[in-house]
Amino acid sequence: MIRKTRFSNTLAVLCLFFFSQCASHTSRGHANDHMHHKSVKELAAQFDDPQRDEWQKSDWVIDQISKSKNYAVWEIGAGSGFFSFKMAKKGWQVTAADPNPEFISLMEEKKLNLSIPEKMRLKTKLTTYNQPSIPKGAVDAVFLSNVYHHIENRVVYFKLVKESMKKNAKLVIVDFEEGKGGYGPPDSMRVSSSKCRRELEEAGFKKFSVNQTELPYQYLLTAE
């Protein structure tokens, strides 16, 4: 569970982003309280700041999910759709899942600016905090960005994710590594890549790969 912590002014804006993306998790905690300090539109403007690509390296992240042109992805905690819209423009079938109806409405508004094929490829899904709500066998990958460390009862939650995944589907997690500093929450709130792997093993995942070098503050973990 996220605990209330004092952030520097520099980190406050970034942390609002991370807090908002607890979207499809378990109980509502302090992280969600932080989200309500600003309106959804104000937060979305920060989430979609073009400068985010400088450290998030979204193109590289998406390539690690797949280089295929035909792919189905379920994003947990999509927020404003920073990644989901990029994936839809790549040609993928994307479900942008979030339990906040305001973010769902915002993404539906943003869809109006997409081409007709892109609109058809991107769906939004209002979920709950306790259930990932992924239809069994429906997607090639489940994706989370800056969300994992917000989830309560992670082993239980990801058992549900695992049960929904078809054979050879993958789980891709991008989150903040302990000791890497920079943007993001303090170490006391981060979940290291090694702990993430241990928890996912307990949830039933067997195969893992972890990249700890490409992203300046984060790791990218893939599990099957």
From TrEMBL:
Pfam families (alphabetical): Methyltransf_11
Signal sequence range: 1-23
Keyword Electron transport assigned: no
Coiled-coil segments: none
Domain Methyltransferase type: start-end pairs: 75-173
Gene3D superfamilies: Vaccinia Virus protein VP39 (3.40.50.150)
Official protein name in the record: Class I SAM-dependent methyltransferase
Record organism: Leptospira ognonensis
Single GO MF annotation: S-adenosylmethionine-dependent methyltransferase activity
InterPro entries linked to this entry: Methyltransf_11, SAM-dependent_MTases_sf
GO BP terms in the entry: methylation
Keywords, in A-Z order: Methyltransferase, Signal, Transferase
UniProt KW DNA repair keyword: no
